[in-house]
Amino acid sequence: MAKKKSIKFNKQTAICLVAIAVILACLVAICFSPVGNAIIASLSQDDSGDNVTPAPAPIIGLGSNVEINGSVVLSNIQFEAHFVDVGQGDAIVLRFSDGNDWIIDAGSGKSEKSATTTEYISYLTSIGITEIDYVVATHAHSDHMNMMDNVLDNFVVKNVYYNAEESGAAYFEDFKDNLSAEAGVNVVKFDADGDNYSFTGDNYSIKIYAPGHDRFEKINYMSPMIMVEVEGVQMLFTGDNEDTVESWFMETYAEEDKDIDVLKVGHHGSAEGTTTEFLRYFNPEFAVISVGMENGYNHPTGNAMDRLYMESVITYRTNRQGNIVLYVDENGQYAFDVEYEFPAENNRDGANDRMLVKEK
Ligand SMILES: [Zn+2]
């Protein structure tokens, strides 16, 4: 009896062991599967959002084709604009097919500058940045410039354009110290009213319109307007400008092609900027707002969002969609890719799609 009982016990043990092994195998399989990763990711989500390290943006890359629903939509990508999610601040990277890389602003409103900076520098490295041909600092506020010294520290920079209106703050002094320590950097301070600069490549042009530091009182309003055209796609970058400079720019730009495709919204969507008149004048299809979550300024404001909505401008926001990348292909088609899908509160039909494609 004892022997039989012993055999029966061993069978049960074996069944138990097999069952445990199966369960363990299943757990291991789940952990290494995409579903498992999603489960683990959701389990490790911090509702406050403070401790979540953003994933790097999906790399599509210059020269590549992008397929959506099995058909090639973008072929031979010629340009990328990265609106890097740095919280409350602007950090924009432009990559052209001739190898030129530009940075417009490198700032962050986060108090923990070191953490943001590490993420930002990692992002630049992850997309293959080694040298930066042009750095433009729109104006001397920390949310546009406090990582500039780190950019100079980490990359070979060839040209730096910055506003003549300086700041005595530590980040600005660090920027100037690093700038003077770099050999061979071409430094241009845009200063006089209406200083303009033009650049052209095989398939693109860039025009910088600087209001000058005597024209307007606010430091924000010393931001240049930067018009970029690639393969017929027009983009306007506005720094922290608002209504006053918008009016000046409409007069300045009156004679030129003014139907743009993408607007980088001025001053993080402040109430005074992005006027209806400005939107109707330049008529953008899409807008991007670089803005931090729960910032103290209530950016983007309902006023700006309402105006964008009323003019049917599909609007992306870094505080919702994370890193946002705009691609332009050789046929002048363009599309956005976003880090996080998020139902945009101010979008037209189809705005929740991961990829939005607009044909010229
Ligand atoms: Zn700003």
Outline the secondary-structure elements:
Elements: H1 2-31, H2 34-43, E1 66-68, E2 71-74, E3 77-83, E4 91-96, E5 101-106, H3 113-126, E6 131-137, H4 142-145, H5 148-154, E7 156-163, H6 170-181, E8 186-190, E9 196-200, E10 204-209, E11 225-230, E12 233-237, H7 243-252, E13 262-264, H8 276-282, E14 286-289, H9 302-310, E15 314-317, H10 318-321, E16 324-329, E17 334-338, E18 356-358
Parallel strand pairs: 5-6, 6-7, 7-8, 12-13, 13-14, 14-15
Antiparallel strand pairs: 1-2, 3-4, 3-16, 4-5, 9-10, 10-11, 11-12, 16-17, 17-18
The protein binds zinc ion.
Zinc ion binds next to helix 4.
Termini separation (Å)?
A: 86 Å
Structural class: alpha/beta
What bound compounds does this protein have?
zinc ion
Rg, Cα atoms, Å: 25 Å
Range of strand content = 25-35%
For the largest beta-sheet, the strand count, sense and barrel status come to: 9 strands, mixed
The quaternary organization reads as single chain
Shape: globular
How many β strands by DSSP?
A: 18
Order of adjacent strands in the largest pleated sheet? 8-7-6-5-4-3-16-17-18
Low-confidence stretches: 1-9, 13-17, 26-57, 347-360
Order of helices and strands: HHEEEEEHEHHEHEEEEEHEHEHEHEEE
CATH fold-level topology of the largest domain: Metallo-beta-lactamase, Chain A
Number of helices: 10
CATH superfamily of the largest domain: Ribonuclease Z/Hydroxyacylglutathione hydrolase-like
So, CATH architecture of the largest domain? 4-Layer Sandwich
What is the name of the CATH class of the largest domain?
A: Alpha Beta
